[in-house]
Amino acid sequence: MSIENAYLNELMEKVIARDPNEPEFHQAVREVLASLSPVCDARPELITEGVMDALVEPERTIKFRVPWEDDQGNIHINRGYRIQFNSAIGPYKGGLRFHPSVNESIIKFLGFEQTFKNSLTGLPIGGGKGGSDFDPHGKSDAEVMRFCQSFMNELFRHIGPDTDVPAGDIGVGAREIGYLFGQYKRLRNEFTGTLTGKGLSYGGSLARKEATGFGLCYFTDCMLKDHGDSFEGKIAVVSGSGNVAIYCCQKATELGAKVVAMSDSNGYIYDKDGIDLDLIKQIKEVERKRIKVYVERKPSAEYHEGCRGIWTIPCDLAFPCATQNEINLESAKALIANGCKAVCEGSNMPTTPDGIDAILEAGLMYTPSKASNAGGVAVSALEMSQNSMRFYWTFEEVDEKLKGIMSDLYKNVAAAAAEYGHPGNLMVGANIAGFLKVADSMLAYGLV
Ligand code: NDP
Ligand code: 2IT
Prior knowledge:
This protein is α/β, with parallel strands linked by helices. The chain has 3 domains: 1-56 and 430-448; 60-191, Leucine Dehydrogenase, chain A, domain 1 (Rossmann fold, 3-Layer(aba) Sandwich), CATH 3.40.50.10860; 209-367, 3-Layer(aba) Sandwich (Rossmann fold), CATH 3.40.50. The protein has 17 helices and 12 strands. The strands form 2 sheets. The protein has a 7-stranded mixed β-sheet with strand order 9-8-7-6-10-11-12, with helices on both faces. Strands 1-2-4-3-5 form a 5-stranded mixed β-sheet. α9 links the parallel β6 and β7 (258-263). α2 crosses α17 and α6 crosses α7. The radius of gyration is 21 Å and the shape is globular. It starts with 5 loop residues before the first helix and ends with a helix. The chain binds NADPH dihydro-nicotinamide-adenine-dinucleotide phosphate and (2Z)-2-iminopentanedioic acid.
């Protein structure tokens, strides 16, 4: 991916020189700047008024110590982050990730991507992301609670319903949001919708849990229909077995596909009869066990060590729903060689740049994550609306709104791609369509 506009190319060099140890952030910025070259050629004021330089620098970076005590009385110190990337079109909004790999580069790339994604939803939300290098795997509920309370003891002073509204991401689900929200409420002595993904008994929205996976399938369905195709009879592979993967598997199956494989960070399962999703939910959501347990309970399925091998399974539709850079060039080549028709991104930035190039050159359909996984944050914004109104919509109402949002999003992205000379290239379309609203708001504010 080359950046054709000379100024943007220099800006990329500046971003790298300023923070040389942030490869994930560089990767996300490069893709966006490459797509924005034609826009900046046509609108040089975006450069001269400082919008482009400001776009690649977070508004605020908060980094803090998180001390907590394990069940044996040992003290641990983790690192916490909240990067408030861009508030041009609304309060900072984005998830918290708890995973040992978390560092500033990863939170910055996620916050940067979130800014464009949130703009694409059409809802008034800015971009932010946070998290910690804490690993919830194998911790007791009490340990997770103490960690979340300690994390919030610092974070609470930086967030609020009109300032910054965190949610879940990898390692942060309903349990963690409960502990985080409980501590926030206690420290502030107020009940406001400052976190989303809350439990249904205390302000959560129906269909938030399902929203990212369902939204991914709604977006994919729009794209398939645009190509005269559908989910019906397709073989699908879904990586991961967390929140996004589970509800992607559910909706893909409802729409007529057969999902034959899922994974976790240790390995993948292949079930030629189609994944038994109730069994996956039991293993992952209830028992919090490894995915290999699936084959103990369903011996006709296979388990393979190593998660990347999942992309060697022949499929029509590939849904990466685990983590960044999970599809590299080799995985992309395997998908292409096996006749895959579409790569539809659920996780954030799951495909490496050379992987994307190979997929596009081979003529596969491709949905960029910032567009196709926007359903989660879109329903988070609907949760914020319901909290402000002190009112609830039914599951069907939220699901209908989600469908409408994903369908409009698809149309806007496809239209932007065509308008800027790249018909069918949803990656370019998403970067441009997400950018324009943010950029026009930044221009309106003057120097900020
Ligand atoms: P979960 O924690 O629920 O699930 C993550 C899944 O991915 C698990 O199966 C996990 O396996 C696997 N995984 C995590 N890290 C790695 C890794 N380094 N290598 C291989 N597998 C890995 O997270 P979510 O489902 O919420 O998030 C998945 C992706 O979707 C992330 O990229 C996230 O940013 C993105 N996303 C999430 C949204 C949401 O609403 N939750 C919204 C939009 C995007 P294991 O258990 O072994 O770690
Ligand atoms: O990457 C994402 O969009 C999320 N993790 C969801 C963010 C949110 O605020 O719901």
